[in-house]
Design brief:
Elements: H1 12-31, E1 35-36, E2 42-44, H2 46-49, H3 54-58, E3 62-64, E4 70-73, H4 78-89, E5 96-105, E6 117-126, H5 131-147, E7 153-159, H6 160-169, H7 174-186, H8 189-199, H9 203-213, E8 216-217, H10 221-228, H11 235-249, E9 258-260, E10 273-279, E11 282-289, H12 293-296, E12 304-310, H13 311-320, E13 332-336, H14 342-354, E14 359-361, H15 368-377, E15 382-386, H16 388-392, E16 395-400, E17 406-410, H17 414-421
Parallel strand pairs: 1-5, 7-9, 13-14, 13-15
Antiparallel strand pairs: 2-4, 3-4, 5-6, 6-12, 7-10, 8-9, 10-11, 11-12, 15-16, 16-17
Helix pairs in contact: 1-5, 1-13, 5-11, 7-8
Length: about 425
């Protein structure tokens, strides 16, 4: 008896590599303050047919149970986590930061590094619409790659909202818009032009879309995007938000990326900022903002952003690169006393995480008092308050959340001090 086509038996170095990747991810997720959740292997079919995308729906392992209910093995994990949030977590303090690991199933043609059963991991930030939330999700993904030693990674960032606004301006809406985005996601020029032709848009609009999705490079690409989209309604705000996200990447330790306007993602629930990570030409992670999915699945309107990782692909890549697997609650939360020191807080929390501490930063833009109350609700051990005057003197304030005592310490000695009192 042979195993089912498209599945694998894992053992030896392959299984060791998978477990290594999961350990590294689990530790990184902990440092960033994410709480792990686990959802059922199968869900109601409707959960995945509402907005997962035509390709995913076509590849579903769907069946009826003995009571005639329509069920499906999960093809991805964002929708189940959103369902969990709606049912049990929506009253929690925002943002709700969740991480997960689990097997997923898609009936697709087996090929290199693509299986019908595969392990997915990911994180979701639910409740924050701010650009630093998007940037943190990218930083989590980039940190995972760095910790695994994948220095040859390529991070591509794009914006689906801009693509949708351009299509809408050309009269392309609804399912027709989704079909164009799926074609763009395929990166097949012939398919893209064929789908654009089916929309009935004029030649000028087709040319505009074609030019837009071919723009890629550094931050300077945004200037070209701005000129190209000049006069198209509602693109100015989307571009401003895109720039705000990019501005937060550097302070959060993300140093290398490519702006790629041809990124459309295969899942149709993405609404705005999107990104993908490749190693050796293989996509190993991808995510973005999906502000309408929670409402679509029955919850109230709630912003959200997340990223999914292909654990098997990453593990296999490590094997091919001959990179042998190497063998608490939050330590602190860094809070800005005012908006002017936010970027410095992002730098500081990145340094603390890289020093091995579990550290977080408020992603909701709260005033200091409310941010401290939020930290207290999470049972954070210590709060690091960053103020303009203290910062100018090279110092920050550490507040013990158990005793209320505060002390002024050198910014450069902060990590060492926090480790000594952990």
């Amino acid at each position: 008896m042979q195993r089912p086509r498209g599945t694998r038996d894992l053992m030896g170095k392959e299984l060791a590599s998978v477990r290594h990747v999961m350990r590294v991810m689990s530790e990184l997720f902990r440092r960033y303050g994410y709480a792990e959740v686990e959802t059922p292997t199968f869900e109601h079919l409707e959960l995945f047919t509402k907005k997962s995308g035509e390709n995913v729906v076509r590849q579903l392992y769907a069946f009826k149970d003995k009571s005639g209910r329509d069920l499906a093995l999960r093809p991805e994990l964002t929708a189940p986590v959103v369902r969990l949030y709606i049912q049990q977590l929506r009253s929690f303090p925002k943002p709700v930061k969740l991480c997960y690991f689990g097997s997923c199933f898609r009936y697709e043609e087996p090929q290199a590094q693509r299986w019908r059963q595969f392990m997915q991991a990911g994180v979701e930030v639910i409740g924050s619409a701010r650009p630093e939330a998007d940037a943190e999700v990218v930083a989590v993904a980039d940190s995972v790659m760095r910790e695994l030693g994948l220095d040859g990674r390529e991070l591509k960032i794009g914006n689906i909202r801009l693509l949708r606004k351009v299509l809408a301006n050309a009269g392309v809406e609804g399912d027709a818009q989704d079909r164009v985005l799926r074609a763009i996601d395929s990166h097949e020029d012939g398919r893209i032009q064929e789908e654009l032709g089916r929309t009935g848009m004029d030649a000028k609009s087709r040319q505009l879309v074609t030019k837009l999705i071919k723009l890629r490079g550094g931050v300077e690409v945004l200037e070209k995007v701005e000129r190209l989209l000049n006069g198209i309604p509602e693109t100015d705000q989307a571009l401003r938000n895109f720039r705000d996200v990019i501005d937060c990447l550097g302070p959060m330790g993300v140093e290398r990326f490519v702006v790629d306007m041809g990124i459309a993602r295969g899942l149709e629930y993405y609404t705005d900022f999107v990104f993908e990570i490749y190693v050796g030409g293989v996509q190993v992670a991808g995510g973005g903002r999906y502000d309408t999915l929670i409402e679509l699945l029955g919850g109230s309107s709630t912003p959200a952003v997340g990223v999914g990782f292909g654990v098997d692909r990453i593990a296999q890549t490590l094997i091919e690169l001959d990179a042998a697997p190497a063998r608490g609650g939050l330590d602190c939360m860094v809070l800005p006393a005012n908006e002017g020191v936010l970027k410095e807080c992002l730098k500081l929390v990145t340094e603390l995480r890289r020093a091995g501490l579990s550290a977080d930063v408020d992603l909701m833009g709260r005033k200091l008092g409310k941010a401290i109350s939020y930290a207290d609700s999470l049972k954070v051990k210590r709060v690091v308050v960053v103020g303009t005057r203290d910062l100018s003197e090279g110092r920050v304030i550490i507040r013990n959340m158990m005793t209320g005592k505060q002390e002024s310490v050198s910014r450069d000695e902060l990590a060492k001090r926090l480790k000594s009192v952990s």
